[in-house]
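Exercise (ungraded).
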Amino acid sequence: MIRLKKILKEGKTIIVPIDHPIEGYFRELEEPRRIVQEIIDGGADGVLLRRGSLAKTYDLVAGRLAIVYRISGATFTSGDMGDQRLTSSVEESVRYDADAIAYTVYVAHPKENDMYEVFSRLVEEAEYYGLPVIGEVLVWENAKVDAFEYLRIGVRTLGEEGAAIVKSGFPSDFSLYRDLVRYSIVPVIAAGGPKMDSPRKVLEFVKAVMDAGAVGTCIGRNVWQQESPSKMIRAMKRIVRGGASVDEAMSELL
Ligand SMILES: O=C[C@H](O)COP(=O)(O)O
């Protein structure tokens, strides 16, 4: 699969998502071109984005970053981020030259099975075009469940249903993350989350997920909410691609 190789170069990847505006107001995303240029300068492998930001930045992205086209979403203002709907199609993704599509399933949500059904249909359709599907699994925030077990089952289910890569959230007990990755039958990349206390914490997190067997990261806010997103990406790359220590990677932030 040529498209997948553009994303998983030598088996590792750094994808930076900027698909957030549906989920709230983010000052840093006021100028998508500025952030995309930072992502390119940092040397990331791909950018994950929606229709509007892609249209605004296509000339920058083309030939420089793999396009991971986000085709699911739920608005923050709807009050239920877990109620993911399809926002595009395989056909449009191919027309936009996407290298992969990304779809999210919220496990423990009352509509979980509907989301899996849509996911499976997308895989079936995307396979025809050689378009990899990245499945994301998150636990619905209103569910009172054992997040680890739900994530582990979700990660495996997405792989069983044909995800090329699974992007996963984390159990609160991080030591269980390795077990979650081990149960997956496809490569796992780490989701990010709200901004951490310091750049070092971000790099410690990247180191921990790589040590636990992830093949890369799909981290947004903790990249583009830094003073220099491109430097942060370079530091992350030292760990993801070079196996550097956190201290070594920190030198990129000076
Ligand atoms: O698709 C990815 C999400 O928008 C998460 O990004 P984040 O690292 O800011 O949580």
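Further reading is listed at the end of the chapter. For now, observe: The first helix runs from residue 2 to 7. The pocket of glyceraldehyde-3-phosphate is lined by residues 17, 19-20, 48, 191-193, 218-221 (CB under 6 Å).
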